[in-house]
Queue: 3 jobs
Job 1
Amino acid sequence: MSKYFKTGVDNRKKKLVMKFLAYDEHYNLLVNTIKHPSVKNKEQLNLAFQDYYTEIRIIRYLANAFYFNSINFDKRERLYNFRNTLALDKKDDEGLICVDRISSDEYLVNNESFGNGDLFEGLEREGVIKGYQKLTNRQKFIVTAKYKHEMKEEEISNLLSISQQAISKNHKKALLIIKNAIFNEERR
């Protein structure tokens, strides 16, 4: 064996052969072939090495496949998140912030999943759920009344016996809290 390793064999091939010979079964086959050189012993050693090399190639192929598929998955995920960002703080053509223009619940709730409980049951996104949990009871009531029961701010103000401006202020503050929670969740 020392003759083999003293010759000018490529280092990668040496490593492959050394790993092959690290198994006792393979090492014994080599020793047996050296001590008793016959066609049968050489054939057994060659078949064992071919099986070992095939396994190495399959493992390398699978590792590369996993690696490149994970890279492609990350690229698709980043592209999806880039294209579907929830940008409530950007100004539109008239100079108004988009939060001021939200009149429906398209970003906050899934209309088909509402039960008889509060708005919390219909929420889908983790950031929205965390933001909703941070709201005060009054803000939760306003958001639920506005989006689940589709009440106008005037109706909510009559129900709570507070001014419509207070309803609007609480509503905007609740949306800001939810927006920040979504932003923080997406940054993780």
Job 2
Amino acid sequence: MQGIQIFVAHEGHTQYAAEICAMMEESARIRGTGIAKRSPDYLVSKMLEGKAVIALAGEAFVGFCYIETWSHGQYVANSGLIVNPEFRSTGVARNIKAKVFELSRKKYPDAKIFGITTSLPVMKINSELGYKPVPFSELTQDDVFWKGCQSCINFDILTRTERKHCLCTGMLFDPKEKDQQKENKSKWRKFKVYERWLRFKQHVLIRVQETKQKRQEKKEQKRSRAGSGGVLSLRERLRLF
């Protein structure tokens, strides 16, 4: 990662659009998997809207990912993740995904973030970010999104199964679930603090009770000695009262 910087893409990065598109297509060809093709103009529009992140090493292109919104902003997809082969195995893909995920949460805090992928490394990164594997029925049902899969070589599988199955795995991050998890953790932490305080109180009360009991036992012993004719000092006699 030394020398690599990740930016929210802007007008100054539009020169990389054609290179990014070519790299996406070549990567899909090598893997033998499908990809929803995007034109350089489309990627340029994402950069101008501030809905993409780009990684550079000086002037050299390193990686890219962009944001798409569906169902009137209810769903957000982090799409088109690509890393220059010369910079793979450096951890940059994870950092790009984290950056675009952060950007998505900032722009669309209430939206569900999803993705479909055949890449095991991407699935692992998504899991680390809080995504869960889900059936396609839990993803956006926006027809425009699914039409984007028409350029994929596996599109016939998707249509034959009525969008229920494909080679891709659907993954979803639901902010409401995440907030609920945080709330539950917060409640649990508060309960644990209360539990520790209760144990402390019980400890103190037990010590006080034990002290009282020992004092009472001593008094009883002294009374017993006095009743049996034992000689008590003035201090001992006073303590009986």
Job 3
Amino acid sequence: MRSSATSTEPEKTRQWGPWSDATVRTIGIVPARMAASRFPGKPLYPINGKPMLQHVFERASMYECWDELVVATCDDVIAEFAKTKGYPVLMTGSHHVRALDRVAEAAELLGADSAADDIVVCVQADEPLLTADMFPALIEPLVSRVDVQATVLAMQIADEDQWRNPDTVKIIANAAGEVLYTSRAAVPYSKGGFSPEIAARRIFGLFAFRAPALKAFTEFEETRLENLEACDSNRILDMGFRQHIAPFPAVPAFSVDSPEDVVLVEAALRERDQT
């Protein structure tokens, strides 16, 4: 890692890529707040003996190409915890409800809003099962193609329950990998029912933007489809931008939206540690 943030995980995999040009900064921001309607205090909730935020930051820091990796929060208790672990922290406004708005403020504090080549990555603080190899998949399209403004990790859906679950945001993309729509409905529709062959994908909580595109996103008004589906990606589409998918295979990875999800995550972590 090029930033001062370090990981306490025992194994690290070097993930250098063609975007290691020193003129382009790659900034990772982990937005976290204690207030959450479904799960208050979620970032510091213990999972296998460690707060969830610790799992997320340690796993994110295993990607070694960050120029900056920071926690962005409005809560003193989160900031104090992060400082005890040596994580860089930025204090952001308490008015933010959406993670990307907090990320955009943090990016501006880091000077990324005026640098057209900087890449800003939102690392959702409720993804304790993320892995370092997700970041090259997410970032590479922004480096290799000047027309790409934003990416989202699009994980393959392996089972029908997840496909039908409204808590899972599904992605419809065209043949060029451009997002056409995101929905909580079971899409794409298949007359024969679910099967892996329909190539259904879901949003995993990693998003990357060119810094000016992120700023433009936060300055644009909320849109009807964004609010109907409760998904920020639909605002990007309504803005006339194109978000590109970063395809990723199905792996045991559960977002933590409620206390019940912690049981699934703990089981997956135990299984992963045994392999």
